[in-house]
Amino acid sequence: MTITVTDYLDVVSSWCFWSEPTWAELKRRYEGKVQFQWKIALMDPTGLPTSREQEQWFYRRSGMMMRSPFMLSTEWYDPTLPEWLAPNCTAEAAKDFGFTDDRVRLALARAALREGKGVADWKVAGEIGAEAAGIEADKLLERAKSPAIEKRVRASSAEFRALQITQRPSFVIDTEIGDRAIFSGVVKLEPLAATIDSMLDDAAAYAAHKAHFGDPPAK
Fold first, then answer.
1. What pTM was estimated for this model as a whole?
2. Averaged pLDDT for residues 180-186
3. Where are the alpha helices (DSSP H) in the chain?
4. CATH of 3-213 among 3.40.30.10, 3.40.1190.10, 2.60.200.20, 3.40.50.10320
């Protein structure tokens, strides 16, 4: 039975940044047993700070909660922007070049949140993403700015909102039999791992039942 974990995120969300060690450990622990994917869920004005000072306050809070030995940078932040299309579209565009893993979006997140680079600028985002992927910046940027990529990003953001949750990251765990668990804003490993373990146990039980009884009767 296939189990899929979907990480709904915004590339420059600080809470998404703090969740990355958990995401990496889940992928390591369940490699070959669970399918992992990430989708863009753009933050909108309702979830964004309105000033650099407010952003810094949030960074201090989340940094303390995560016991971080460093503080995130706010130098990249532009309070005039209602959303962060450039870094998110750049990460999404990299998928079309075969980079469906985390390297491009992580490079963009680190550049913004650790180094304070202005990833809201398309050219800056394109150069950072291209360097992480080892591809030509112009080609990545052209794809990132295409209507097709923006359409995909907005579609996955709408998919996220349809779940009636608001926090990023949100982890959605699905099985073939229709079971679903949603963790909105939860970034610690233990509850996610416990849920996946339970679903894997159910999958083993279903496989054992099928081996003994086969498919259900037609009627």
1. 0.94
2. 97
3. 14-29, 52-65, 85-94, 103-113, 122-133, 137-144, 147-162, 189-213
4. 3.40.30.10
